[in-house]
Write the structure tokens for this entry.
Amino acid sequence: MTIHLHSFIGIGKCYIQVENQAHHITGILRKITNYSHNKYKKPLLEVADSAYFECEEEGTITYYEAKGSDAATSGIWTYLIYDCKENEEKVFRDLSIDTSTKSLQELLAGQSLVQNTTDIYEYLKYQLYESEYLDVRLPRDWDTPQGKEIANLLLEEFKALNSLSLFAEDAGKKYTRIVINKFIQIGWEVLENGGTSKDFECCQHDILKKIKIDDIANLIIAYNDYRLWQAALPSKSKAVEYAFHAALNLLCRIQE
């Protein structure tokens, strides 16, 4: 059975309505902005009367639907999606959920939306990808002076590792995942024990020395591109510096 949902068609899916989150709204904004290409003289919300944004990581889809510039007839709805057999499709609505476009209007007016986070990895992810539109808040357990300092150091690592194409390859992804996970773990341990950001930085060096580095070092050498070194160094990231230092040491051994 085909489901018609907010001007869109769904087959073989069940939809459970959930609260709109800030990143759902920014996803819709980007879709509308990309559609308009800013070449229309009309307001953005008059250019696109419908749009959708899928977040594969959490299994949700967000719909925006409007009728002209009338905010009262416009809305934003987010649903969790589950696969189902054909003819078993269903939409589970929650009429208590706010579906107004107020948050979208605020973004268009240049305001930021508050995004609370439940863990530090979520905080890093939103800071990297959504900071243009969101006021990302630290998890409660990290929202202390020392927690903020350590979170800033983690964010520097996260941004640096995600800024180079090298770390988008398999060996680079593995290195990034291991480094960030271990840095987050030791960062939390430092906080729990009443330590400081300086303590955390000392622990970072100890962690890097224990990580297998050959794969990422070989990948850096295989690139054989001086522009990669220029783009990467110098870096505020200890993990980036360590990887390239290991590659240099390996290169020296090869040439001996």
